[in-house]
Amino acid sequence: MQVQLQVNGRSVSIEAADNTLLVQALRENLKLTGTHVGCDTAQCGACTVLVDGNAVKSCNVLLAQMAGRSVTTIEGLAAADGTMHPMQAAFKDCHGLQCGFCTTGMVMSAVDLVHRHPGADEAQIRKQLEGNLCRCTGYQNIVRAVQQGAAAMAK
What we know:
The protein has 5 helices and 5 strands; from the N terminus they run ββαβββαααα. The chain has helices spanning about 20-30, 85-95, 105-115, 120-130, 140-155, and strands at about 1-5, 10-15, 50, 55, 70. β1 (about 1-5) and β2 (about 10-15) form a beta hairpin.
């Protein structure tokens, strides 16, 4: 099957089997390895990308479902000149990561969260990030990073 879609602002055509998952196509066909494979069951959130601006766990959708859609991965979040997105910068500044495995999915979910709930408080942020698991940080710095990123995105 041939699927046409936008990935990180550019048109791509991917030839793949009918049962190819979006995460597989991103990592294997397009070599965008910032999208991680964690649990393969949509439980951990490490594979989160934005599809038409909304957070989606890419291990849980078929590539075929993406025909004509726009996908943004962590590689496409930064500006063209390499300047980090405000949420990426906030995760760095607030030490919202340790091993880094969950970070890309967490950042993508946080961007979606801020678009949907721009004034979210700590409790709302924690609730909205329940679909993303971090085994290292204890979430305190992640919540601070989301708050700082949200403030920077509002400017």
